[in-house]
Structure formats: structure tokens, C-alpha cells
Write a structure and sequence with these properties.
The complex is a heterodimer of chains A (about 240) and B (about 90).
Chain A: E1 3-7, H1 13-22, E2 26-30, H2 55-66, E3 72-75, H3 81-88, E4 93-96, H4 101-114, E5 118-124, E6 127-133, H5 141-145, E7 156-157, H6 158-161, H7 166-183, E8 193-197, E9 202-206, E10 235-236, E11 239-240
Parallel strand pairs in A: 1-2, 1-4, 2-3, 4-5
Antiparallel strand pairs in A: 5-6, 6-8, 8-9, 10-11
Chain B: E1 2-7, H1 9-12, E2 20-24, H2 28-38, H3 42-46, E3 47-48, E4 51-52, E5 56-60, E6 63-64, E7 80-85, E8 87-88
The chains are: A alpha/beta (about 240), B alpha+beta (about 90).
The structure holds zinc ion (ZN).
Chain lengths: ~240, ~90
């Protein structure tokens, strides 16, 4: 049974974890935050009584109620270069729904280095994006965005721009869809950005490409963020295989 | 030669809150210039010294202009330019 790390158990991570848990996937929930009242409109695993509790503990209990017998690990920790390798240990796929750019790039870089597929999600206002990444083929998150916005640049986060509750529920479910596809070995959507605009009710697909100078695809180089780059270890002939667990 | 430009949320404040604007121009650069004429200061939000800012992505229809002719990418009537920004949140 596959092990999926859900990094960030917020508006995106809650619906994604619920769908994956019910699909029989083993889960590792990672988030350092505690439930706040302002989370409740969009983070569907939590209720009023959970305010103040660690998100991962409350989410684990909710998931076990929804899917008795599910295998759910809870890790209350932050994402840093020091913790990431431990968090990704033994993981078959990552669902990344964090709310900080630094974490997004860190996850992208480490997943590329370790050859772990990842589905990135983000949600602001009325729209959200989904980017499934299969290591060893197509673009990664850093190919698309290159770097986090500078502090002088207007960056969109749900803290600064807000997010409408149903939108992350939709986008989080899409993260689970793409995760299940990648776990099945179906890479048809890998490297494609789905941009969903709930206000206009339109979804568009964008097709970024792998950037030749992206540090995540340079064999045998030391990664600028401190991780040793390993060239797509599980890729053979453009086809990926996952270790069976 | 009307081009629709769909904007990342963060850029909308610079076009009076609009989600999309229309402009004319034969290339991506010319279209951004035209938007800047309509909404002065817009271009500075999108372009830096080395072209498109690193946390932004410009697509012509489905394709990233970095893999076309960048800002010189030729446009056709009714092409859609999407300016996508890295966002974090959920
Ligand atoms: Zn890359």
C-alpha cells in the first residue's frame, strides 16, 4: 500500500488527505500549526472543539473516524532542510499544500533529488493551481516559477489575499485525483498546470516545459539549497517505477 | 488584433481590479506596452531588468513564452496571454 506524505494539512491538505485515506492510501500528515478558528471555514477535518489542538492530531482523529482502519501518521513539525529528508523517508508520493513559498521550493527540490513524485497545490481568492510532477520527466515546480517572489514583490498567499472556503475543497480534491493517477503510474498530467478559476467557472491547462538551467535536473551538481542532487534515480527510459511497498 | 490578457490575482490591483484586460500588439512585448499605456506602471510589475520577473510566468494560450520567442513571441488575433504568478495558500 502506497505511503503519501501530506505536507500542510490546511485547506488543501484536509480534502486531499480525506480522499486519499478513503482510497486506502497510507498517510503521513505533516504540519506544525495548531487549529485556529479562522481555519474552520475551509479546513474540513477540523471543528470548533479542535481550536488550539495540533492540526495533525485533530486531522488524524477525523480521518480515522471517516476511514476506520486507515493508516495515518501524524508529525507536528516544520519544513526545513533539516527535517525534510526524515519526512520524506519511505514516501511514495508527496501532496504539497503548504502556504509558504520557501516550503514549496524546498519540497520541490527534495522530491526532485530523491526521485519522489509530488503534486503541488495552491489556492488564493477564487482560484487555485495544481501541478503534478513526475521526477525524471517534464518540468518541476522550480522549472515553472524559478524562485519565490522577493519581499518587494506582491506575492499571493491565503493569509494576505484570503481564500473562499469551497475553492480549496475543490482544489484539494484535485490534488488527490492527481496523486492517485501518479501512484497508478499514469503520468498523463505530469508537468501540466491546471489553473482553476472558481469565480469565472473556468479551468485552463498550461504547459510549462522543463527549463534546461533548472538546478533540479543537473546531474551531479550540489544543489544550491544544500541537497545533493541525484539524477532521477528510479527513472528508466523515461518511464518511472515506484518501489512496491 | 485584440489580445486578451488574463491576470494573476496579485496583478489585478494594477489594472483597476480587473481579472482580464484587452490590448493590441504584434508581440508579447508590444501587448505589455499597450497595457502599460492603459494602466501606467503595469509593466514594472511584470518585467524586471532581465525580462519577465522570476516568480511570474507568461503563457501564450497554453505555451510558456520562455520556450517560444520570449517577449518577442508573435501573437495572432484572439490569442490569450496568461500571466501566472507563484501563489502559496490553502
Ligand atoms: Zn525543474
Amino acid at each position: 500500500m502506497s505511503l503519501v506524505a501530506v505536507l500542510g494539512v490546511g485547506g488543501l491538505g484536509c480534502p486531499a488527505a480525506l480522499a486519499l485515506g478513503r482510497a486506502g492510501v497510507r498517510l503521513r500528515l505533516v504540519d506544525e500549526d495548531r487549529v485556529e478558528r479562522s481555519n474552520l471555514h475551509r479546513q474540513g477535518l477540523y471543528e470548533e472543539a479542535d481550536v488550539g489542538r495540533p492540526k495533525v492530531a485533530a486531522a488524524r482523529e477525523a480521518l480515522l473516524r471517516a476511514a476506520p482502519g486507515a493508516a495515518v501518521e501524524a508529525r507536528q513539525t516544520h519544513f526545513s532542510p533539516d527535517t525534510m529528508d526524515d519526512l520524506l523517508d519511505g514516501v511514495d508520493l508527496v501532496v504539497e499544500g503548504t502556504d509558504a513559498f520557501g516550503a514549496k521550493f524546498l519540497v520541490a527540490d527534495r522530491c526532485a533529488a530523491r526521485g519522489v513524485p509530488v503534486v503541488h497545490g495552491a489556492c488564493v481568492g477564487w482560484y487555485g493551481t495544481v501541478l503534478p510532477v513526475a521526477p525524471g520527466e517534464g518540468p518541476c515546480y522550480r522549472c515553472v516559477f524559478e524562485d519565490a517572489p522577493g519581499c518587494d514583490e506582491d506575492a499571493g498567499t491565503c493569509v494576505t489575499a484570503g481564500v473562499y472556503g469551497p475553492v480549496p475543497a475543490l482544489v484539494g480534491a484535485l490534488l488527490a485525483v492527481e496523486a492517485l493517477r501518479l501512484l497508478r503510474g499514469d503520468h498523463g498530467n505530469a508537468g501540466r498546470v491546471l489553473w482553476y478559476d472558481a469565480w469565472r467557472q473556468v479551468a485552463r491547462e498550461l504547459s510549462p516545459r522543463r527549463r534546461s538551467r533548472c538546478p533540479n535536473h543537473q546531474p551531479d551538481t550540489i544543489h544550491p539549497r544544500g541537497g545533493l542532487m541525484v539524477p532521477a534515480p528510479r527513472s528508466t527510459g523515461g518511464r518511472l517505477s515506484w518501489p512496491s511497498r | 488584433m485584440a489580445i486578451t490578457i488574463r491576470l494573476a490575482t496579485q496583478l489585478r490591483a494594477h489594472v483597476q481590479g480587473r481579472e482580464e484586460v484587452t490590448a493590441v500588439g504584434e508581440t508579447v512585448r508590444a501587448v505589455l506596452d499597450d497595457v502599460d499605456r492603459q494602466y501606467p506602471g503595469f509593466k514594472d510589475q511584470v518585467l524586471g531588468e532581465k525580462g519577465v520577473k522570476r516568480h511570474l510566468n507568461v503563457f501564450v494560450n497554453e505555451d510558456d513564452i520562455r520556450f517560444l520567442e520570449s517577449l518577442d513571441t508573435a501573437l495572432r488575433d484572439r490569442d490569450v496571454l496568461t500571466i501566472m504568478a507563484a501563489v502559496a495558500g490553502g
